[in-house]
Amino acid sequence: MPVIHADQAPVFDAAGGTVITGLAAPSRGANDVSVWRVRFAPGEPSPVHALTREETFVVLSGRLTVRFDDRSETGTAGDALIVPAGPTFCLVAEDGPAEALCVLPVGGQAIVDGARFTPPWAE
Length: 123
Fold this sequence. Notes:
By secondary structure, this protein is mostly beta strands.
C-alpha cells in the first residue's frame, strides 16, 4: 500500500496562481482514482475545459464556484461539487482564496479547445 506524504507530493503551478499538489495517481501507486489538492487564488478562473469523466471537488476552505455556460454552482467548506463529463466549465474562488480536494477516475481526461489530455497531476 503506497503512502503519499504531503511534503513529498509533486506540486504544479497552474494558470492564474492556482497551485496543485498531486496525491494519488497511477504514477504514485493508485489504480482507480487520481486525487489532488488545489489552492485557488481569489478571482482567477481556471481555464475553460470539459471532462471525459465525472470529477468531484470537496471544498476544504473558502467558497468555490463552478461556472457552466448556463449556470453557476457554489460550494463552501465541507461541500462537494460534482462536475459531470461533457459540459464546459471553469472554477473560481470569487471571495478570497479557496482550497479543494479533487477526485477524477483514472483515465479521465480534460478537453481544452478540442484537445484531450491527462493533467500531469493525474498521471
